[in-house]
Amino acid sequence: MRTIVTGLLLAIVSVGGANVAAAGGANSAAAGANSAPADSAAVPAGDFAPVLAPAPGKQSVHVTAFRLGKIPVTNAQFLEFVRTHPQWRRDRIATLFADKEYLSHWSAPDALGKGALAQQPVTRVSWFAARAYCAAAGARLPNWYEWELAAAADERHTDARSSPAWRERILEWYARPAGRPLPAVGSGSANIYGVQDLHGLIWEWVEDFGSLMVSGDSRTQGDPDKLVFCGAGALSAQDRENYPVLMRIAYLSALEARSTGRVLGFRCAQDATP
Amino acid sequence: MRLISKCLICLFMTAALAEELPGDSLYRLQIPLQAADGITVALADLRGKPALITLFYSQCSSVCPMITVQLQNIDRHLTQKARHNLTILMLSLDSDRDTPQALQTFKQDHHIEDPRWIVARASAADVRTLAAVLGVRYRKLPDQSFNHSALITLVDPEGVIKAHTEGVTKSATDFLQKVESTAVARRH
Predict the structure, then answer these.
(1) Chain A residues with CB inside 8 Å of B69's CB?
(2) Residue B167: exposure state from Cβ atoms within 10 A (0-12, 13-18, ≥19)
(3) To the nearest whole percent, how much of chain B has pLDDT over 90?
(4) In total, how many domains does chain A have?
(5) Pair A137, A36: CB distance under 8 Å
(6) What is the tens place of the pLDDT at every residue in A35-50?
(7) What residue numbers bound the domain in which A178 lies?
(8) Which residues of A touch B141 (CB under 8 A)?
(9) Which residues of A touch B162 (CB under 8 A)?
(10) What is the CATH number of the domain that holds A88?
(11) Alpha carbon A257 to chain centroid, angstroms
(12) Considering only alpha carbons, which residue of chain B is nearest residue A127?
């Protein structure tokens, strides 16, 4: 089964590499808090068992209360961001912060055109760009456990992961042929928190995607040839049947911070206001 | 607010630099490093000389001591000319516990005295940013230890990544040669 996941991953991941020549322009984090925080939903604190065990012998994690964007960030919203933060335009961004496919489906650095509808989720954005957008909105990217907790829900349950219907519905998305235009945001049904499109629309960046070190086989931990990782070794899956989430993890763990993808977007999160 | 001030600093510094940094230079990141002696330097201050960069933490008992030894071995095997021109940055992943005092103790324990070696800490957000650029993956475990990639990265004087080591058990001969040639190359 791991082979299947890996194979699918290879088919899906298209990481634009290419260290092209230097791009001009000053660049760092985005500035200012211009746009109103995205319409977000409250997700209460909770303990849950993530698909990857958080540590050897430990099954559950505690997630503190947070707010999560109800829908992913759209092309229209991101266009507004690059207009007010021009250092994130595709013709000005430094190659350190995004690969050459960054926003390449827009008709111009400051226009969407026919290939990018206003209400479609913005995609082909790097982790740096997604992070800068959220920071400018007074928010942040969700971390992985927040995302996984929210995405475990269906319309009526906070944890629907053991439901075959939940898995099948999500897996339908993976089976859909690539290359079709993306639907508009908000096309999926809202889960129990009021959050939409966590499954079935796009892959989403998380703040700590670099913490997802995957190994499906704990025996590799003692292999001296694998001493690329320091510490208690890579993570081991405690729920190997949960393909929808394992696919996400596999996808995210293959990315670099400057990577972009045709169906890779993001939504923002915030700490819960006390 | 912190972001605003960062960006202003960034604009100011870019204007101040005589030559523009390459688009993929690490020194485009505005990251203050607090060294073991308590003095704060900017990551971009490393510009002008090649550098070896690694992420570690002082309480690490598994692979990190081997990284330190590996760095010392590389340094020792360079020609004097190359060694003299090289900066070595060890940045802690453990922003909470690796205070300058803890880093000072680490330096003493590992007999790190040469001023070319910078053992430093930074904010958790800045560590995440630099780790992302270096391709270092890491996570904090419930017992406060870290899982992390054990990599050493070579960057040229302009902050462009030239090479990575691939784990501490592989022979570092190729990597050593790259460090040597990068460190003796003239700056353009």
Answers:
(1) none
(2) buried
(3) 60
(4) 1
(5) yes
(6) 344 589 999 999 999 9
(7) 37-213+255-271
(8) 54-55, 231-232
(9) none
(10) 3.90.1580.10
(11) 11
(12) B132
